[in-house]
Write a sequence for this structure.
């Protein structure tokens, strides 16, 4: 037995992320006592239609978020309890709506800062409906072994430490949330634990009071004694005393009241909960509450520290009189253990997980990224440049000064080639169509292939093959290429020729061979090949793709990485074209009719579909 | 609970048709001279000048001056503005028309759990406490508005007669409207005065409390509530309030001068019990503090640094119940950072620190706290097995 919440409680949580966190904690309790999920639905219009993942132990459940309480109940008619986790400005309407639902008998609200007028109205409305409105500012309700509403009871470990997996004999009613947990702990330490614990909230006008729940506990045969923790302000504790003293009660009452310090503090100095304020002429003072409770026969220790002893005393008395029969404790080892997350288990080295991917170049787990072990900031500090980062991330090597200078010049020379070429033109058309930067640059990027910029890799690859397989036999190489590949990648140009050489090629070849000490077997081989091909046809020159490809092979970059240099370099240009078009507020463009040869069929009638 | 000053209260009275005397609130005496040129009532009426600040016992402190003409009011304003009373400074004065009147009445309304209660007496004024038996009460259930006839009956019951009873009832009905619609918690008008020659009424003095939590539905609340602790807030308290307004969860601070036991406690309920424990053992607290609702670590750190600076403290009580959802490890890391920073600035010399806490990640939090011993802190750390407030006994017995 219990009060307010039990095995049959099924709840809806009205509210956002705080409600979700509560649901997760509640599911841990559900797992501990092996009951079905308490939270059956969420109501939170901004996230309507979403599913929230809730683990009950190792079992993953999806709980639906509804846009309205009505729709939540239409699909989950078993719901009989509502938890309000929504902001103060909407709390009143949410709670009232829940109280209007026939099947919902209990509404408990954690929201803080709810206007007093709203709380008073909700209390009255609930009373009229014969329902319970608990809160505002309530941490929740706990029934040992049966049901947890809210985050009351804290983390999983604490649920076990407070013996909340099985019922005891003590009821708990507090204003404070933190002290509800403390009181449950004290009841487990000094007695046999709790039946139910409820936090009514520390506001000036809570929806329920001590008497509401004392009466319920009195009617609950399993509850033998009740611990209440009150505080200065209001008259709820005095009313509890009046109730307790009015007639012989079955339950023993233990109480602790906070705020005696206010006797010695300057008048009007107020702290603690919103409701903790002494009235005129000492009305609602902690002292008057303590006296009233003592007169009514409750056990009230002088300080909170005395509570342990008081609980123990009552427990022993109840045992001695046979009201409480000691039951053998469950072996804690038999209790379920919350499944740890994969991360936790891995930390303990108790599980092997096969990685999904592997990386050998970059590590982001520290304070800053490390490229092949080197901290990015340290590279900056020591004078390295972007070309060194390319060397590290693409080839896992720090290039020498000379090598990085070559890489840098390759990138500089290939950064752009005017608006007419396929890549830039693609980006420009996209920019003119109002496409955003990343997508417009991608449009240009899709042009990179066998006929535009994409020959670097293949040029490097085949010239490298030639160096290896046909070192002194250019005709043999050309013959092999003809039979197996086709035209030699990196050889040939649409407009450039021997008489009209490509300045970029001349410059690069001259720089690498005359101004650096780089050993260039591949470039040399390609130049030999060029001699043979240009003898056949004037425009079969070593083009810029071929030149770059060979130099990069000579720099020891893997051949499949070589197109990357063109992609990297030309990205700079394409971004430039996109920015340029945007700066000029360029308009949508389309081809003129006269630039198109409409080599089409004449107009004709569509035949009937067969 | 939020007490508001007379000026804003008068403004709300005006809004709901409760008669008030003419008044102005000023910060600069020169402004009063200019207002005098513009307003006939300032030149022709007797005036009262009052410090417009949350200072108790203004009359005795000479911060209320009665029966002045405009020159006298100017003089009084000059004298009051800038005066220092304890830790606070008078920055504003309210200058109001001092209505010549024949009688003083008492009218108030205060909320209770089931609605509100209207109090009426025809023996208002400074001696109302002595005439408390003349006060008649009318209970107003939640969401109900008593008819004017019903209020008039109460007025007659309280000894009002004829036209005056009707007029008082009318004012009371507007007071009820103001109370209901402005989310007030209590309004006390004392005295409500009458000048019978022209049957003019005015609320000469008023104390009003509004529900500050309801401010989200009052776009015209352009005031701030005044300090609830009987004195203006200190700089440190203001600083913590500013942080509190910005964060999830909360941090709170009230300084109590003269005490030597500082509190750095968690939770609205438990923190009060820690104060009680200190007082019950004959100690004196240097402050009240509270952090709750899983506040961010930096907010707790700021609170810690302020507490470490409190003068003449011998002990700091880092106490708390077993938390439901406040992360002990995270909030303690804020406290630890605060302790370290304070120590490096020369604070915490000869200060003993006593810790007791439970809750999410309690083991890590307590272990980190305990490690401060290695850094030379005089710190004593206990877990949930130590009864909550017993660290106070340990501190006082040490």
């Amino acid at each position: 037995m219990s009060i307010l919440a039990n095995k049959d409680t099924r709840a809806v949580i009205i509210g956002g992320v705080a409600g979700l966190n509560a649901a997760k904690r509640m599911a841990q309790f559900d797992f501990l006592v092996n009951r079905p999920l308490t939270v059956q639905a969420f109501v939170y219009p901004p996230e309507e239609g979403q599913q929230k993942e809730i683990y009950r132990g190792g079992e993953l459940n999806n709980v639906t978020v509804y846009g309205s309480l009505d729709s939540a109940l239409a699909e989950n008619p078993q719901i009989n309890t509502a938890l309000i986790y929504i902001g103060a400005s909407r709390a009143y309407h949410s709670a009232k709506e829940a109280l209007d639902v026939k099947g919902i008998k209990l509404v408990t609200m954690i929201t803080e800062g709810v206007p007093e007028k709203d709380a008073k109205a909700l209390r009255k409305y609930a009373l009229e409906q014969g329902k319970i409105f608990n809160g505002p500012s309530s941490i929740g309700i706990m029934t040992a072994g049966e049901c947890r509403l809210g985050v009351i009871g804290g983390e999983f470990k604490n649920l076990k430490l407070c013996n909340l997996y099985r019922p005891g004999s003590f009821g708990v009613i507090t204003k404070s949330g933190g002290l509800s947990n403390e009181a449950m702990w004290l009841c487990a330490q000094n007695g046999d634990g709790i039946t139910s614990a409820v936090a009514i909230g520390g506001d000036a006008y809570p929806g329920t009071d001590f008497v509401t729940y004392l009466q319920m506990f009195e009617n609950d045969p399993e509850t033998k004694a009740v611990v209440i923790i009150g505080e200065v302000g209001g008259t709820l504790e005095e009313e509890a005393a009046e109730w307790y003293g009015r007639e012989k009660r079955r339950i023993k009452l233990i109480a602790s009241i906070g705020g005696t310090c206010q006797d010695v503090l300057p008048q009007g100095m107020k702290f603690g909960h919103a409701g903790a304020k002494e009235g005129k002429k000492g009305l609602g003072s902690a002292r008057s509450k303590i006296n009233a409770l003592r007169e009514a026969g409750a056990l009230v220790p002088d300080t909170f520290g005395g509570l342990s002893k008081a609980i123990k005393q009552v427990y022993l008395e109840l045992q001695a009189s046979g009201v409480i029969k000691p039951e053998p404790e469950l072996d804690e080892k038999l209790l379920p253990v919350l499944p740890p997350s994969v991360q936790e288990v891995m930390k303990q080295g108790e599980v092997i997980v096969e990685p999904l991917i592997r990386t050998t170049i970059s590590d982001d787990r520290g304070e800053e990224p490390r490229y092949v072990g080197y901290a990015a900031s340290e590279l900056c500090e020591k004078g390295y440049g972007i070309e060194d980062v390319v060397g590290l991330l693409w080839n896992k090597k720090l290039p020498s000064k000379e090598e990085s200078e070559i890489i840098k010049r390759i990138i500089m020379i290939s950064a752009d080639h005017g608006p007419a070429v396929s890549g830039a033109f693609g980006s420009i058309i996209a920019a003119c169509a109002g496409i955003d930067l990343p997508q417009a640059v991608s449009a240009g990027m899709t042009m990179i292939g066998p006929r535009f910029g994409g020959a670097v890799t293949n040029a490097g690859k085949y010239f490298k093959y030639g160096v290896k397989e046909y070192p002194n036999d250019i005709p043999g190489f050309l013959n092999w290429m003809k039979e197996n590949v086709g035209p030699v990648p990196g050889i040939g140009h649409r407009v450039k020729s021997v008489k009209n050489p490509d300045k970029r090629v001349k410059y690069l070849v001259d720089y690498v061979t005359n101004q650096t000490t780089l050993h260039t077997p591949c470039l040399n081989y390609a130049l030999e090949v060029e001699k043979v091909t240009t003898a056949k046809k004037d425009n079969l020159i070593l083009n810029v793709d071929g030149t770059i490809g060979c130099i990069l092979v000579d720099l020891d970059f893997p051949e499949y990485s070589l197109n990357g240099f063109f992609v990297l370099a030309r990205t700079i240009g394409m971004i430039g074209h996109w920015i340029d078009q945007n700066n000029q507020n360029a308009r949508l463009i389309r081809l003129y009719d006269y630039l198109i040869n409409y080599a089409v069929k004449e107009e004709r009638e569509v035949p009937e579909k067969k | 609970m939020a007490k508001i000053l007379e000026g804003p209260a008068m403004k709300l009275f005006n809004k709901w048709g409760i008669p008030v005397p003419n008044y102005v609130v000023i910060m600069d005496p020169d402004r009063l001279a200019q207002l005098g040129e513009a307003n006939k009532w300032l030149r022709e009426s007797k005036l009262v000048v009052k410090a417009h600040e949350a200072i108790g016992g203004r009359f005795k402190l000479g911060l209320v001056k009665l029966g002045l003409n405009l020159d006298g009011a100017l003089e009084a304003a000059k004298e009051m503005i800038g005066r220092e009373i304890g830790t606070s400074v008078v920055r504003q004065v309210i200058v109001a028309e001092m209505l010549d009147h024949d009688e003083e009445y008492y009218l108030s309304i205060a909320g209770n759990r089931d609605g509100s209660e209207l109090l009426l007496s025809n023996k208002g004024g400074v001696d109302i406490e002595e005439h408390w038996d003349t006060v008649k009460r009318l209970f107003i259930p939640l969401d109900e508005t008593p008819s004017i006839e019903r209020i008039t009956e109460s007025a007659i019951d309280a000894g009002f007669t004829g036209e005056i009873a009707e007029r008082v009832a009318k004012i009371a009905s507007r007071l009820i409207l103001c109370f209901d619609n402005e989310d007030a918690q209590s309004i006390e008008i004392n005295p409500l005065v009458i000048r019978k020659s022209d049957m003019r009424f005015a609320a000469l003095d008023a104390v009003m409390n509004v529900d500050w939590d309801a401010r989200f539905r009052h776009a015209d609340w352009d005031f701030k509530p005044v300090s609830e602790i009987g004195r203006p807030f200190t700089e440190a308290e203001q600083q913590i309030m500013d942080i509190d307004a910005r964060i999830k969860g909360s941090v709170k601070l009230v300084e109590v001068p003269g005490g030597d036991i500082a509190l750095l406690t968690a939770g609205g309920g438990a923190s009060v019990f820690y104060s009680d424990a200190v007082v019950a053992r004959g100690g004196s607290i240097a402050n009240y503090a509270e952090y709750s609702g899983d506040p961010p670590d930096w907010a707790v750190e700021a609170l810690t640094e302020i507490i470490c600076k409190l003068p003449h403290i011998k002990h700091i009580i880092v106490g708390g119940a077993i938390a439901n959802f406040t992360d002990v490890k995270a909030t303690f890391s804020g406290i630890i950072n605060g302790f370290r920073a304070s120590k490096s600035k020369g604070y915490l010399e000869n200060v003993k620190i006593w810790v007791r806490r439970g809750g999410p990640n309690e083991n890590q939090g307590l272990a980190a706290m305990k490690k401060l011993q290695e850094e030379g802190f005089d710190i004593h750390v206990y877990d949930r097995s130590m009864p909550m407030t017993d660290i106070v006994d340990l501190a006082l017995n040490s």
Q: What stands out?
A: The first strand of chain B starts at residue 2 and ends at 4. Chain B has twelve helices and 19 strands. Chain B has a mean pLDDT of 93.
